[in-house]
Structures are given as structure tokens and as C-alpha cells.
Automatic annotation (TrEMBL):
Pfam families in UniProt: Beta-lactamase2
Domain Beta-lactamase class A catalytic span(s) in chain numbering: 139-338
Protein name as it appears in the record: Beta-lactamase class A catalytic domain-containing protein
Recorded coiled-coil stretches: none
Positions of region (Disordered): 70-93
Species assigned in the record: Ruminococcus albus SY3
Species classification: Bacteria, Bacillati, Bacillota, Clostridia, Eubacteriales
Length: 377
């Protein structure tokens, strides 16, 4: 029986050798050893396990060493990336500006730019926006560092709406009013159905709180209470000083008026300069940058820069405006006034389009020197 079994095993081995030879393996029957005839030692078993098959379990010491190495590599990689990212770009070469004629808008004080070709493309885009507008519109732009200016219908009169609130509040802060003073509500703006107008007569608010309501919520009653308490004399006097040719009524009834974009632009440039040297001015900028309705210039540029803006709208007057201080690398002021149905996606479009073009224009303006950051007093 044992002989028969041995013959059977031998036959099987020969067949296996033939099959392997047929598959291209150079194997003879004598090379093949039955598995059951040989046991692998523990050492041999370990040696035959490939690196890929080893369990991914490390001792605490090994783990710490690997983490340390990986951390070191990550730090080196991060440093290399930061080094690469922080590598200064070669300075752009400034050239004399040769662009600006033949457009519907006025261009002045563009002395040095980084590319006349790119600037011309921006002006062409600006011209297209002006040409396509089927409503009354005006705008004024000014780079604060260089004075570079663009104006379109900048002398046309528009309703100020709530854009005037920021310059008025600035006049109070410059005067140094007591922000803790309590002011009773003894009047409500006719037509106000929201905000503090819903509160009872006689309720007291600090001047600080009324300013916050005026800027953040554009609350007309809060604004009226401030005008009634402090008047408009200081505001009006300062308007003459900065060359802004509109004023408000002394009796707190004519607290909205008409003006042009150039005059309102001067007011917002004045706010910028005031904030540079006054802590309450900085507070005003913070309020403007966090105004609750921000659907125009700030919506277009707010993800890129700090934008201190104040909108204005009046449905009866069909007025929709926005004035902004844009804290780009080289700050600029942009004031846009329109006569269109306010606060719709369609009426906001022109503000966003203009903001994007002026951001590109502003990036092409070269400072005359490193002293360009210094404000002209």
C-alpha cells in the first residue's frame, strides 16, 4: 500500500513539473518538495514576511521618533513653502500715464502707472458700464495716496439718503461729545416702522448707542435724535472747510438733502483722515465696516479688503447710493449715486461692477515715492 502511495505521489510531482514547465518555469520534479515534508522555522517565517505584510504597529519610542521626523519634514516643507511664498516679486516698473482722453468720464492726476495697456482696458470697461446704464448715475473715485481721480457726472445732484449719516456722526466725534450722555426719545422719524421707533416715548439712549443704531442699522429716528440734540452747525462749518458744498438744516428737520458725488467723496476722504489720528474715528470705521446692509461696494470687495461703507436708499425718490473707503494696499474712496429702484439684485449690479473695475484701476496706480503713504495734511 505504501508503494502504491509513493507511486501516486511521484506521478503527481511529475505532472506538476510538466505543468510548471509548460508555464515557462524552469523546474524539475526533483526540485519540488512536498509541503508536508518540510516545516519552516520561526526565524524563517519572519524572514519570509515582506515589509508590506508586516503589521503597522510601532512601539511608543518608534512612534515618537517617526512623528518627530515627520514633524521635522513638515516644518522644513512649511518653511520652504513660506520662503517660496514670501519671496518678493520684482518691483513693477512705473511709467508715465498716457491714457485718459476720449471717455465720458474725467480722469486727472494719473501721473505714474504700471501699465498703460492694462489701464486702457480698465477704462474701456468703465466706459462700457457708463454706456450700458439706462438710469441716471454718477460716481467719483480718488486714490488717497496719489490723488488720482476719476469722475462721471460728478456735478449732478442726487438725494443724499443715508450716506450723509457717516459724515454727520464724524462731526459729532470730532467735536468730542459725551458718548455716555443719555438722550430721551421725544420724536420719531415719520415713516419709520422698524428699529427704535417701535419703542415708547421717553425711553433714554446714550449718544453712543444712537450712533451705533444710526450707522449699523441706518436708523432714521436715531439719526434724528442726534441731530435734534447736537444740531448741524459744526457739521455745516466743517463742510465749508473741506470744500464740500452742501449743508443740513439747523432745526433737525432738513437732515437729508441733495448733493453730488464729488462733495460726498470729500466727506468720506475726511472720515479716512480723521480715523488715522483719532480713536473714535477708528471706532466709526469699524462701525461702517460692519454695517448690517452691505450689498453694494462692500459685497464686491469685502472679501479682499476692509471696506467702510454706508449705503443710502429712498423708494419714493428712486434713489440708491453707496459711499465707501476701501482699505486696499493703496486706499481709495469711491462714491456712487444712482436713480433706480433700490436694494434689488439688479440695482446692486452696477455698484459691484464699478467696484471691481476701480479696484483694478487702483492696483495700476504707482506711488510717486515711498512717502506716498504719508497723508497730506
Amino acid at each position: 500500500m505504501k508503494n502504491i502511495n509513493k507511486c501516486g505521489v511521484l506521478s503527481a510531482l511529475v505532472c506538476a513539473a510538466m505543468l510548471l514547465a509548460g508555464c515557462g518555469a524552469d523546474v524539475s520534479a526533483s526540485d519540488i518538495v512536498p509541503v508536508e515534508d518540510k516545516e519552516l522555522s520561526s526565524a524563517e517565517t519572519v524572514e519570509n514576511i515582506t515589509a508590506e505584510d508586516k503589521p503597522s504597529v510601532m512601539s511608543p519610542d518608534e512612534y515618537s521618533e517617526v512623528v518627530s521626523d515627520v514633524g521635522s519634514m513638515a516644518d522644513n516643507s512649511s518653511e520652504a513653502s513660506e520662503s517660496k511664498a514670501e519671496k518678493p516679486k520684482p518691483p513693477r516698473k512705473a511709467v508715465d500715464c498716457t491714457v485718459g482722453g476720449g471717455y465720458w468720464f474725467t480722469v486727472s492726476d494719473f501721473k505714474k502707472v504700471y501699465s498703460n495697456e492694462e489701464l486702457e482696458k480698465c477704462f474701456d470697461r468703465l466706459q462700457e458700464i457708463c454706456s450700458d446704464a439706462d438710469f441716471h448715475m454718477a460716481f467719483s473715485f480718488k486714490n488717497i495716496d496719489t490723488g488720482a481721480y476719476v469722475g462721471y457726472r460728478q456735478y449732478d445732484q442726487f438725494m443724499t439718503c443715508s450716506c450723509v449719516k457717516a459724515p454727520y456722526v464724524k462731526s459729532l466725534l470730532a467735536k468730542g461729545i459725551d458718548l455716555k450722555e443719555k438722550i430721551p426719545m421725544n420724536t420719531k422719524w415719520e415713516g419709520d416702522f422698524e428699529g427704535i421707533a417701535n419703542e415708547e416715548y421717553g425711553k433714554e439712549y446714550t449718544a453712543k448707542k444712537l450712533i451705533e443704531y444710526t450707522i449699523l442699522d441706518s436708523d432714521n429716528t436715531a439719526y434724528q435724535l442726534l441731530c435734534q440734540r447736537y444740531g448741524c452747525g459744526d457739521f455745516n462749518s466743517h463742510q465749508y472747510e473741506i470744500g464740500s458744498n452742501y449743508t443740513l438744516g439747523y432745526n433737525a428737520e432738513w437732515i437729508f438733502t441733495y448733493c453730488n458725488t464729488d462733495d460726498m467723496m470729500k466727506d468720506y476722504e475726511d472720515i479716512y483722515r480723521f480715523a488715522k489720528k483719532n480713536k473714535n474715528g477708528k471706532w466709526l470705521i469699524k462701525l461702517l465696516s460692519k454695517a448690517h446692509l452691505n450689498i453694494q461696494i462692500g459685497a464686491a470687495l469685502g472679501d479682499k479688503y476692509t471696506v467702510a461703507q454706508k449705503y443710502g436708499s429712498d423708494y419714493q425718490e428712486m434713489a440708491f447710493n453707496d459711499c465707501a473707503i476701501v482699505y486696499a494696499d493703496s486706499p481709495f474712496v469711491l462714491c456712487i449715486m444712482t436713480e433706480q429702484y433700490p436694494e434689488t439684485e439688479e440695482s446692486c449690479k452696477v455698484f459691484k461692477d464699478l467696484a471691481l473695475v476701480f479696484d483694478d484701476i487702483n492696483s495700476l496706480i504707482a506711488k510717486e515715492s515711498d512717502k506716498g503713504e504719508k497723508d497730506k495734511e
